Amino acid sequence: MAPETSPQMSAELARRAGHYAAAVAERLLKAGLPVTGIHSCGPWRDTDGRYLDVEVGISFTQTFQDQYGGGDCGLHWAGTSGWCLYTAGGQDRYLSGARWPEAELLPQPQLVVAFVNAFRLDPATAGSTDQPSYRREGRHFATLLDNLAPHLPAQPRRFEEPQLRFADLHKRAYNNRVRQALTSSTADSLTHLHLHQGELAALLHLLEYAETNNPNPLNRLLTADLTARAGRPPEAADKHQEALREARRHRQDR
Questions:
Q1: How many CA atoms lie within 13 A of 150 on its CB side?
Q2: What is the pLDDT of residues 36-49, one digit of tens each?
Q3: Euclidean distance between the first and the last CA atom of the chain, given in angstroms as a whole number
Q4: At a CB cut-off of 8 Å and minimum separation 6, what does 134 contact?
């Protein structure tokens, strides 16, 4: 039977494991993957009294989940077996269809990204269906804490909690994606995408919603550009490019 841990030890394990998840999530976001959140917990017992070791999770957008899991797909890390990428349909149990990368208990974040990319290319051959065992459940937590320490944030006072760290890097990752899209080599090429007025209005509502959650000049300028061009001929695009100019200015200032 696994020994019980103190509330303090359990909380610290959850915090450090959460920071490890944030470090992996940061790499995934830099690779262009649609990460939506992280979670972590220390040792605990479920409603059936079953003991569960330290664990973390990384979630993706529903579109990503539908594409690769048929409804449920994500990354899960257990303190005994390391990372796995699970897929499950509506009737499947949690973590069914899991594949493990065979990369030790605490692989570097870039190795986790490589595993996810391999899964996206060929889910049937990425990793293994055999769950490994790198550590005894409920044992050697002090060693695990030490091994998680390298993934703690460089600014511990600013990002004491993993969720704060993730929220900051998530915001920055998407701000960078928007700027890069606006300043890419194809940014000035006009598309031939025809939108219904309702679709354009819906897009503007989504941009407004994004602005309420992440105040950003690019949100406002892009909304203004699209609004000013609505219902006008293609050449109107050349007159309304404030978002493009702001993105280029930001890029030059870096």
A1: 8
A2: 999 999 998 777 77
A3: 55
A4: 80, 81, 82, 104, 105
